[in-house]
Design a protein that fits this description.
This protein is α/β, with parallel strands linked by helices and 207 residues long. It has one domain: Rossmann fold, CATH 3.40.50. Strands 3-2-1-4-5-6-8-7 form an eight-stranded mixed β-sheet, sandwiched between helices. The two termini are 30 Å apart. The chain has helices spanning 13-22, 39-42, 55-62, 79-94, 130-143, 182-194; strands spanning 2-6, 26-31, 46-49, 67-70, 98-102, 148-154, 167-170, 201-206. The protein is built from six helices and eight strands, in the order βαβαβαβαβαββαβ. Helix 3 (55-62) packs across helix 4. The longest helix has 16 residues, at 79-94. Strand 1, helix 1 (13-22) and strand 2 form a beta-alpha-beta unit. The chain is globular, with a radius of gyration of 16 Å.
Length: 207
């Protein structure tokens, strides 16, 4: 299977790319700045240089791929929500139905106030909600798309290797979960490529 990767230079995306390469999967990435990709990853992938907000570039990079993986992070703006319709349109043109994205625990349902998302509720300790709002808009676009999407939603995300030992829960953050490493987030998201699960769901992940 050939993976179309967005966010390959990021903390989670680079580890997912490495997992895919070790598993013998082909990766084609959309990269804005190739110099930010470690050479040991770049030398074993193909890529299109460009921006995720450029529709024709996204379509060109996606040709021949069977699944889309997005580990794009928020950039202080609205890149996630603005790029999602572009990605969705390109997927439909190319006949790709499956997309796995990395989100945030803020867009999971609140346990204490189930009618709210976590970032909207008293569960959230963050004063700034811009990033969560951008993730929320992207989630809404996916929910309306008709595609087979899954959003992996980590809580506090320190750098760290994969252990393979963590908890996941559909639409909610596992109880008392307060962190998950970048490596284990990548490990779980990659497992969804190998075996399709949690279609059209958000999935909370934590230790």
């Amino acid at each position: 299977m050939k993976i179309f990767m967005l966010g390959a230079s990021g903390r989670v995306g680079s580890q997912m790319t490495e997992f895919a390469q070790k598993a013998g999967m082909s990766v084609h990435a959309l990269i804005r700045q190739p110099e930010k990709i470690p050479s040991y990853l770049l030398n074993h992938m193909t890529y299109t240089e460009g921006d995720v907000l450029q529709g024709k570039t996204v379509e060109e990079g996606m040709k021949g791929c069977g699944i889309v993986v997005s580990a794009l992070s928020t950039d202080g703006g609205n890149t996630l929500s603005e790029s999602m319709p572009i990605v969705i349109d390109a997927m439909k043109k190319e006949g790709i139905s499956r997309i796995i994205t990395i989100g945030t625990a803020g867009i999971l349902q609140s346990r204490t106030e189930p009618h709210l998302l976590r970032y909207q509720s008293s569960e959230s300790k963050r004063k700034l909600t811009r990033a969560a709002e951008d993730h929320h808009k992207a989630y809404t676009r996916l929910k309306e798309s008709g595609l087979e999407w899954t959003i992996v939603c980590p809580t506090y995300l320190p750098d760290g290797d994969a252990t393979g030992v963590y908890r996941v829960e559909k639409d909610l953050l596992p109880e008392d979960g307060n962190k998950i490493s970048t490596g284990d987030t990548a490990h779980f998201a990659f497992s969804l490529i190998k075996k399709a699960r949690f279609s059209q769901c958000r999935v909370g992940i934590a230790y």
